[in-house]
Structure formats: structure tokens, C-alpha cells
Amino acid sequence: MPSGPLDRIALALFVPADRPELYGKAMSCGADAVIIDLEDAVPEDRKGIARRCLASADDILRQASCPIFIRINGSTSPFHDEDLSLVARLSVTGIVVPKAEGPEALGVISRAVGEKRAIIALIESAVGLRDVHSVAQAADRLAFGAIDFALDVGCATTREALLFARAQIVAASRAAGRPGPIDGITVALKDPVMVEADAAYAASLGFTGKLLIHPAQLDPARRGFAPAIADVAWARRIMEATLNGAAQAVDGTMVDTPVRVRAERILHDAARVRDPTTFAAEYHKSQ
After folding, report:
1. What domains are there in the chain, each with its CATH number?
2. Which of 107, 152, 251, 259 is disulfide-compatible with 125, CB 3.0–4.6 A?
């Protein structure tokens, strides 16, 4: 993935591609990234309209203050090739590839849209999970499409049923040297408690981002990913006490390298989910 604040993306908000009146609103609501969706959010009889809306909005996309991704239709879709042709002409950060199931297909997609564009690969099938390590090597970041995955393998959408898949995606991301993966959506639009709990659960497994389907989910998801205030205070004390690199006791506990690394990660996570206006300013400056 391109350098800069992109690998600190925590919250990515979907907006349907056939609703251009929502593009600007999505870009200004505080999300770390916006995903304009040509796939599931657009009925088949509106795919052409959605592409025309996107093509007409390139000036808006070029001036966006956050990363913009396009979720294309999958490689087995009759709309796939036209999506790739359109994305190649747009001023966007990258694409989201649904049902990613192999590095070869991702390579073809990357060459079609331009190799400088980032690829987020959605693991949404048993085959995708089987190939998750090679997909992680070929993509810039992984994401989990929990609902489609559960449908493919015939399991429930409970945390217990999907734990194995989530753990595999996290491990593959780490092994490939990629940023932590992005967890899937919470379908409840008006249940901030559920959104926050889902985000906190994803963070506890090693996910560092979440896909969102409504701006109302932003604040609870950000709370879910944010480290506890007490943990941040502890991490700051650790870092301050070990500036010279020597092991010391802090709060009655010996501080060695693993403890310092944990403190660094807590502070990194706290920065990654900080004030979205600061994130936007950093992104704009990096362009």
C-alpha cells in the first residue's frame, strides 16, 4: 500500500455508486476512507447508471480529503471488465476486490487499473480463506466479508462460528507484512452498542479497521477501536520511563522489551483512531 497515513485507516465507509449526492457527505463525515460501491449496494439494472455517476464525479474524487476506494464487481461478473476500465481513469486511491481467491487474479486487476493503486482484498469464501496467505502477499491489505463468507460455508454469523476465519486473516496479514486487516460490517444501523462491541471484539483479535455502512456507525466504531484511557496513560508512563532504553520498574512491574513494544502499540492504536480531522489533514498533506 502507498506510504503515508493510508496504513492507519481504521474506519472505511461504504456509499452506493449510484447515489452521487452522497459522495461529498460521505467524504466529510469523518471516515478514514470512503468506499464507493459498484457491487452489492447497486442493483444490476443500475450498474450502468452507477458507472456514469462515478465517471462524472472525478473532480470531486480528485479533491477528496480522505482516501477513496472503489469496490468493483467480482471477476465472474459481467460488469467486471467495465468496472476496471472506469477505475483506470479515475482519481482514486485504490480498489476493493470482492471474493478475492488467488494472487493471479489480483495481479491482472492491478495491471488493469494501474499498479500504483492500492488493493484491498475481501476474503469472502472458503477458497479465499484457503488461499489467504498468497492473497495477502498480492494485495495491500485484507478485509473480511463475514456475511458472504458465512453464506459460502453455511455457518452462522456468530463470533464463535467465524473466529477461525478471522484468526487466519489476521495471521496471514502479519505474515505478509501487511497492516492489520479490516473487519466486516455490522448490519444494525441504529445500535451503537452493537457497533462498538463488534469493533472492540475485532480489535481484540488483531483487526485494525472496520467496514461501515452508515455515518452513524463511525463514533461507536471509533470508541470500540480506541484503547482504554487507563491503558494509554500506562503506555505513556512506560515510554517516558524507558527513554534511555534501560529496563526499569514502572508501577511495580519490571519493564523489558515486550512490555515496551506493547506500550508502543497502544500509543500507535490511540493515534490511529484519533480525531478524524487530523487524519484528513495528514492525508491531504501527503498527496
Report:
1. 5-225 (3.20.20.60), 227-287 (no CATH)
2. 152
